[in-house]
Design brief:
There is one protein chain. The protein is mainly α. It is built from 13 helices and no strands. The two termini are 45 Å apart.
Length: 258
């Protein structure tokens, strides 16, 4: 027993404990369902870091960040977003009262983006609104979420807000066109794209989207001309891409680790 207090034995004990921790992490990593192994290592690293901060009593102020980062890792690793959303719920629940309001707003937006990926449009919209501050980059998302909920007037206000800030913004025209098309008014959608390409003649995607509206109206000649014009402006353009589809069904979570 006395030998355990010798410096060399202490070092050996620390090394042994370290190997146990590393072994546990390795086994946990192997047992984790298939996915991005790098993200899995980061996920378990985040949990280990939090465990150490708990032991040293330094976790209270940053516990919400741990849960938030866990949520991002989980959302990026797996299609099922339930566990990620539970972690985001815990992040919001554990945020200290003395933290600036901007942090809470940020968490609501983070959860909104995860909910959007999960297809929970109602929950995503509520989180965006509860964040208290919607950025310009989120206007199209909010507009489409309002549209999915049947509130076209609110959706229209966000579409117009995009164009009020930048009257050549492609997202604004795509937003308005989607609303008019959804209420079976492709004639008004066509007017939107006429205005878009008039204001910005080199807007290749504008020609593509106008082409599809013309096709819907039965103008196949106009469709072919616009597709040809789009390819002239941008030879590598993918005419199958859709900003609306990418907004409502994002394939990649853009949130980063703090």
């Amino acid at each position: 027993m006395i030998n355990n207090f010798q410096p060399q034995n202490k070092k050996n004990d620390i090394k042994f404990l370290l190997w146990i921790v590393l072994g546990f992490l390795f086994v946990a990593w192997l047992c984790t369902p298939p996915g991005n192994k790098f993200l899995q290592i980061c996920f378990w690293g985040n949990n280990t870091k939090f465990l150490i901060s708990k032991v040293t009593h330094n976790a209270e102020a940053t516990e919400y960040i741990f849960h938030r980062n866990n949520a991002v890792y989980l959302a990026k690793m797996y299609k099922n977003k339930k566990k990620a959303l539970k972690e985001m719920d815990r992040a919001i629940e554990t945020i200290p009262t003395y933290i600036a309001n901007g942090e809470l707003e940020s968490l609501y937006k983070d959860r909104a983006n995860i909910r959007l990926m999960a297809g929970d449009y109602k929950g995503a919209l509520n989180d965006f609104l509860n964040s208290g501050k919607i950025d310009f980059t989120d206007y199209l998302k909010v507009a489409m979420l309002f549209k999915e909920g049947g509130n076209y007037r609110a959706a229209m206000s966000y579409c117009n807000a995009i164009l009020d800030i930048d009257n050549t913004a492609y997202a604004g025209y795509a937003c308005l066109s989607e609303l008019y098309t959804s209420i079976n008014r492709p004639d008004l959608a066509l007017n939107v794209w006429n205005l878009a390409v008039d204001r910005k003649p080199n807007l290749a995607r504008g020609y593509v989207d106008r082409a599809f509206v013309k096709k819907q109206l039965g103008d196949l000649e106009g469709y072919n001309k616009d597709i040809a014009k789009a390819k002239e402006v941008s030879p590598t353009i993918n005419i199958e891409e859709s900003i609306i589809e990418d907004t409502l069904h994002p394939k990649i979570l853009t949130l980063t680790i703090r």
